[in-house]
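Tutorial handout. Part one gives the primary structure; part two gives the three-dimensional structure as tokens.
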Amino acid sequence: MTAVIFGVVVLLTATFAFLNGFRDVSTSVALAVRTRALTPSVAVLLAALFNFLGALLSATVVVAVSHTWIHLPEGDSGLSILLAGLASASAWGLLMWWRGIPASSTHALVGGLAGAGLASLAVGGAGVGGVDRSLMLQVGLPLLLSPVIAYVGAYLLVFPATWAARYTQPNVVNQRFRRSQAIAAGAVAFGHGLQDGQRIGAVLLLALFAGGYSDGDSIPLWVALFSAVMLTVGTLFGGWRISHTIGYKITRVDPLRGSVAQIYSALMLFLGAIALHLPLSTTHTVTSSVLGAGENQHFAVTNRKLVMQIFGLWILTPVAAAAGAFVVALALSPLAG
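Part two.
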């Protein structure tokens, strides 16, 4: 039975990784397509390439991430917790894509694992160790801090950018910043691969450990390639519903402000993944940066009703994923037992 559950976990991890790339490609390409810096096809191909490279590079820290993230019980119990958490997180991500809402895959996954762990405890099984720390560091603090830092930083950076371009013709300014947006789109995709590749690889490493197939102290080559390939395949399919929300619905940005938002987002993702080892939601970071840059204009362009709806769903994401995983884990409890 362990081998069967492990196989299902791998399939669900593939689904989660595909949906992650499918939904989060919008964070890389939405603004570049909106300002006509890149065509949709070129933007997606660029995002796929840099997502792949970022996810491959993230494999160098997957072991450390898995050790400091959460601790699962061994055997069928641990695999069932992963199965329930992945199923709930994937279902929530698909629902948010259908509604065109940019939401965090990481927050859904951590919430799902927490809910599945509670269900395991409710039926007398072992819970998930370290989940309280993960909820604080991967959900709580980023949910509160990263959108604020992204919004304020992008808002303030518009001032020096517009000052530097004050004597330049508007068409020249737009042309130059469209070029920088093409570079920034690749940088955001690379940062997304760095961040989310870590989580996907860590899930597989935890599954291998729970199933007794690995000691968890090294990452097999297939895990790194699996994470990178599934993220890339999802990116190539491109979830344009969310791209339309970020690029057209929440606010309006010109090439200058779009470039500022993307460059600042990429820097935050790089700093979080490489220097601070801090998990940041690409969705939250880019969306908040777009809002910050878009707000720094002389006329109102932000759809505040939609923004409040998105913020509300960001808060609901870990709760909803936890509730769904709790139900799935209870249904799976006979197998785990």
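Part three, for discussion. The first helix runs from residue 2 to 34. The mean pLDDT is 83.
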